[in-house]
Amino acid sequence: TSRVIEALAQNRRPHRLAITLERASYEVVIGSSLLARAGLLLAPLLPQPRVVVITDETVASLHLQSLLDSLSDSGIHSQTVIVPPGERSKSLEEYKRVTDAVLESGVERRTTIIAFGGGIVGDLAGFVAATTLRGLPFAQIPTTLLSQVDSSVGGKTGINTSWGKNLLGAFHQPIAVLADVSTLRTLPQRELVAGYAEILKAGLISDPELFAWCEANASAVLSQDAGALTEAVERACAFKASVVADDEFERRSDGGRALLNLGHTFGHALEAEMGYDGSLLHGEAVSIGLRLAFLLSVRLGVCPQEDLDRVTAHLEAHEMPSRISSLARAVTADALVAHMARDKKMSDGKLSFVLVKGIGQAFSSRDVPMSLVRQVLIEDGA
Ligand code: NAD
Ligand code: MG
């Protein structure tokens, strides 16, 4: 019967989510077994039947052939550029190598760049698309849960510099996003959980119904139930799309895209302190950071304790990272505070925090005393 159910799931029509922005509109197509249909889905949208697929070695070895077959079945000519997996590929050196390869292949203004991989490939390929010949059409086929629910929607692209992460970049919206949840089957479980933390974040920011849905469906999502994954991706993308539509270029100083940083001021500090060596994934840091944002809000007297308890219970029930004390090695509050002071969300010398009045009620604040932040970090095990 499981094979029958699988076949039914594969036949299920993909969900389509429309993203409408001032200067662009596109669809996010979400479902199972979309790679095999990528050619059919993309063909009507491509300005010319020609693409350059940018991917990483891991994704290439697992999934590239199905994508290329599907493109060629639809008469789409493709070339491929493969980068090493990992954050190091979001560098000026790799950007140069990839743009050289893209230019060498003789791209024209109407050739589409396809980002096929996780957020790293998406950010790099998107920036290549944004800048090559002053802007090439761009499509996203995200293959990690994080990239399906977060980085592939919203149009931010970019690379890192020695001065920090994502400091060179551009807003460049895709012409389409294809989120095939079947590709997630090969994703390491830790990466799946890390992506799930960003879904949880969406609910905690302004969608209490999404958080309640997570409470009921997290087990199904984390055990790769295709229906649950499709719905989770759709709900999280719908949330992100609404935030992005409201603040496409991150100009609003409060609310808007800034709220997407819930849990991230803490998360970025934890990541920086752990050294980006794979010992703490971004989403794992966000998982701890989300709870810290609730703890800080409770200690500031703006959030009820019971909402913190509900978040904590959810993280613990699904064995997600929840406390600084659970990290592989000790970190100090001083070190974390120093990282926060260097965060690019500083403006006029003040740090902006995203706080909560409760589940689904985030707001930004610029007057959180650092002494209280330090106290909360120590309470959590720093
Ligand atoms: P990633 O791209 O490194 O992917 C994680 C790992 O999984 C990599 O080793 C990759 O090779 C592998 N992988 C990818 N798909 C796979 C699959 N289907 N099966 C097996 N392995 C697979 O990381 P990520 O978490 O997807 O993205 C992180 C990046 O996204 C960061 O650079 C971050 O800055 C960026 N980001 C950007 C935005 C944005 O708005 N542009 C938002 C959030 C994060
Ligand atoms: Mg994030």
What does this structure look like?
Its cofactor is NAD(+); Co(2+); Zn(2+); Mg(2+). It is found in: Cytoplasm. The protein is α/β, with parallel strands linked by helices and 382 residues long. Strands 1-2-9-6-5-3-4 form a seven-stranded mixed β-sheet, sandwiched between helices. Strands 7-8 form a two-stranded antiparallel ribbon. Strand 1 and strand 2 form a beta hairpin. Helix 6 packs parallel to helix 7, helix 6 packs parallel to helix 9 and helix 10 packs across helix 11. The chain binds nicotinamide-adenine-dinucleotide (NAD) and magnesium ion. Magnesium ion binds next to helix 11. Nicotinamide-adenine-dinucleotide (NAD) binds next to helix 3, helix 5 and helix 6.
Q: What string, H for helix and E for strand, traces the elements in order?
A: HEEHEHEHEHEHEEEHHHHHHHEEH
Helical percent range? 40-55%
Note the beta-strand portion.
Answer: 15-25%
Note the gap between the termini. 50 Å
**In order across it, which strands form the biggest sheet?**
1-2-9-6-5-3-4
Give a short overview.
47% of the residues lie in helices and 17% in strands. The chain is an alpha/beta fold and 382 residues long.
